[in-house]
Amino acid sequence: MAMCEKEPLLESEGPPFARCARLALLGFLAFTSSHDHVFAADTEKKLIEFGWDEPSTAFLATNLQSMARTPFDGCVFHAEYKARDGSHGSFTWEAWGARAFNEADLSGALADLKSLRPGKFKWNFLRFNTTPARLDWFDDYSAVLSNAGLAARLARAGNCPGILFDIEQYEGPLFDYRKQKDAANKSWELYASQARTRGREVMQAFQSNFPGSRIFLTFGYSLPWSETDHGKNSLAECRYGLLAPFLDGMIETAQAGTQLIDGYEISYGYKSDAQFINARKTVTQDLLPIVRDADKYRAVGRLAFGLWLDRDWRTRGWDPADVSKNYFSPEEFAASATAALNECDEFVWIYTESPRWWSPEPSPKTAVPTAYLEALSKAHPRRSP
User: Fold this and answer.
1) pTM of the model
2) Which CATH architecture has domain 41-383?
């Protein structure tokens, strides 16, 4: 698997329904439904890039000005380490394990981040994965918690809005109760309780080192809710069932100003307004049965959307010359991005694999066709290059 590889998990579509009415009041945007969030006053929409061209801190520091000329407001990036013993690698991909990194290991990344003068291109999130995840929930988590705190300090040093917390099970089956080490001897309830404890601890590690940060999840409760077939099956039977109690713990510990953003990767292929509208209902109302504290969830939770530009490229291909062959035509991509920006609370993220918005080794084969750049500029004119 490529170091920045990101794979889709689910596609869920639902019937259209009436959109909730909105009222502006005292700098807040509140939904009339008692189930919906009270939104923060700063609801200016942002467009974030996240894909196989994910930059390192060094690339970000060197290329920030040219990256700022794209339609994006920021990107997701990763941190690399170089230890005293000469070893080096990806902090992002090794942090959820038994090894505790220190600031000396990340001194190069820290220097890169402190050098940033992002200007408008300031909505950059440090990626923190749940990998390699070869731990049981009842194992020693001191290294994971130390690394979560270190990630938060790095993000804060770079004037980032927060952490991109990628919960996808690339390696160990962290959230699947059925595959836990002691599942045969310990009940779902015991594991769920322990996952809540770890959620509290991880959130505390994040916010004690970066108060008021945004924790941007690739998926929130939307993923286990989808896997239960909208409440028909138990969380214990789901690949991501333990994610729900883990998020319960994070929400329980969240302090004023901290946000937990559901990146809603399920929306990767959405093409209609109704799909995005339905997603808001799912996140703010339908999935509440698997949320432990609905009131705190409404206060802390936010909704974002992901769009995958070259969706299905493995089966249908990606053609930069004849864009009509791609999953999204430029016109469709502009329409989907517009709908996503309209319905999100603050962020829309654009995911790509074959095309690269920026790359250490640019190539005509990986360049993003101009028509898609224009499509994003049309959807997000405030950041037009």
Assistant:
1) 0.89
2) Alpha-Beta Barrel (3.20)
Mean pLDDT of the 137-155 span = 98
- CA 142 – CA 334 distance, rounded (Å): 45
End-to-end CA distance of the chain: 33
| H or E segment to which residue 279 belongs | helix 273-281
CA 55, 160, 143, 140 torsion-angle sign: negative
Instruction: Report d(CA 169, CA 142) in Å as an integer.
Output: 20
Encode burial over 279-312: b for 16+ CB neighbours within 10 A, e otherwise.
bbbbbbebbeebbeebebbbbbbbbbbbbbbbbe
Cα gap 28→38, rounded to integer Å: 7
Please say whether the beta carbons of 46 and 347 come within 8 A: yes
Q: How far apart are CA 272 and CA 280, in angstroms?
A: 13
**Domain map of the chain by residue range?**
41-383
Half-sphere exposure at residue 211, Cβ-oriented, CA atoms within 13 angstroms: 2
User: How far apart are alpha carbons 31 and 258 in whole angstroms?
Assistant: 20
Residue 28: DSSP 8-state: E
- Counting every residue written for the chain, the total comes to 385
Choice among 71-80, 109-118, 208-217 with the minimum mean pLDDT: 109-118
User: Distance of CA 156 to CAs 50, 114, 124, 128, 290, Å?
Assistant: 19, 9, 11, 14, 32
Q: Are 178 and 240 in contact (CB under 8 A)?
A: no
CA distance linking residue 98 with residue 110, whole number of Å: 22
